[in-house]
Amino acid sequence: MKVPSSLFLKGHVVPSSVFLLKGTPNVKMNPILCFCKAIQTSSYEISNGSYHPTVQQTKEKNTMEKPSRKIESIGAFQKLPIVMPSIDILGSALRKARKVAPTKGIANIAKREKNRGAKQLDALMKEIAVPLRTYVENFPNKTYLHPYERSLIELTLGDGYYEKVLREVDGLRKRVVSVGKEHASLCAKSSSKREAEERLNEGLKKVEEIFAQERKVVDDLLDIAKTLRAMPVINLETPTLCLVGAPNVGKSSLVHVLSTGKPEVCNYPFTTRGILMGHIILNFQKFQVTDTPGLLRRHDEDRNNLEKLTLAVLSHLPTAVLYVHDLSGECGTSPSDQFSIYKELRERFTGHLWLDVVSKSDLLKTSPVVYATDEPLPSHELEKYRKSGPDGAINVSVKTQEGLNELKQRVHELLNLQMAKIEDISNNPEK
Question: InterPro entries, per this entry (predicted)?
Answer without folding.
Answer: G_FEOB_dom, GTP-bd, NOG1_N, NOG1_Rossman_fold_dom, P-loop_NTPase
